[in-house]
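Issue 218. Parser rejects a valid record. Input:
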Amino acid sequence: MNTFTTIFLITLFFSSFVQFWLSKRQADHVAHHRSAVPSAFKAKVTLAAHQKAADYTLDKVKLSNIDGVISLIVLLVFTLGGIINQVFSYWSTVISSPLLSGVVATASVFLLMTLIEIPTSLYQTFVIEEKFGFNKSSVAQFIKDQLLHLSLGAVIGLPLLALILWIMDNVGSTWWLWAWAIIMSFSLLMSWLYPTVIAPLFNKFTPMADGSLKERIQGLLVRCGFNSQGIFIMDGSKRSGHGNAYFTGLGNNKRIVFFDNLVDSLEEEELEAVLAHELGHFKCKHVIKMLIATSIMSLISLGILGWLIDQDWFYTGLGVALEQKSHATALLLFMLVSGTFTFFMQPISAYFQRKFEFEADDFAASNAKASKMISGLVKLYEENANTLTPDPLYSSFHYSHPPAAIRIAHLETKLS
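Output the parser choked on:
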């Protein structure tokens, strides 16, 4: 057995073991606290709502474990089982152009993996979400969304993939610097285009009607010195009962978006506080900081790939014969297995994300009422069935937001 195969298998099974262990901790912790509402929320959340959140969380953990097993099997079958090797071998005999065959082979693998994931998505949407009253989507809508995602992936992703592979094949040893520059430029372009070009393909965005809510929000924007291309209501309720709010876009193409069901659920002052939190991410430069961090990690990743491309053991260790050694197979293998080796970096990323959430909450408390931020969050926790009692270790890996009790306690220090 190739030494790298051994390293890969040990890392894969150890990281998978930790993930399943963390999931068990989460399930046990949530189930243990299911019988009583935490003291900090007793006056705000009913026992029925708390137990609904617990049951919803437990069902999602079970599905996540099943999905984890499927993903583990698929990764092993596609790499060491030889599927990737066979796909690239087939397309190299059908298409004479190495560049085109590499693009088609890579796309074929991702298409196969996407199709394998669809049953899990169907179960999540039409069994779990339906069971707890969140699903508002139809089978026709689900199919439409899947086809639209695939179409966008083909129209946007395939030309980008072809360009990256062409650079890898023709630029020389510094290809990874050029590829990094193109990928980051593309990411910025997509962030700029998303509000006006991509998002409207999936949802309808209606300008917020004139009235007291719009006046309140515009007053907040003036106080915060935030300029946007408008305030919009998104028809999120056509797919889900979960509510949310966000701002999106870059430069002069920024939009503020409220889900329609969020507007129906919260009071005006609560909506103002929730938006102040979102603006806090912008004013605290979290978007820029995350962009810089992503840029650095992308550059490091591409640098590592630049070294791995010339190592025969990287291909053979992951089930690809040297006859199929190419920049396309190297890129695909790297994208599929890199997550296995970076799994234990998740708590670092989650730590900084939660730090940003605290900073955005502080900004919201300074520019809106902290009491309304608290009441709005409690309503969102209850209506979205977010558990109030996550396992601390599990949340340190998987939660980008602070757990409910910690976040509310932090906001309560801002009450005057």
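Fixed in the parser; the record now loads. Residues 280 and 360 are 4 Å apart (CA to CA).
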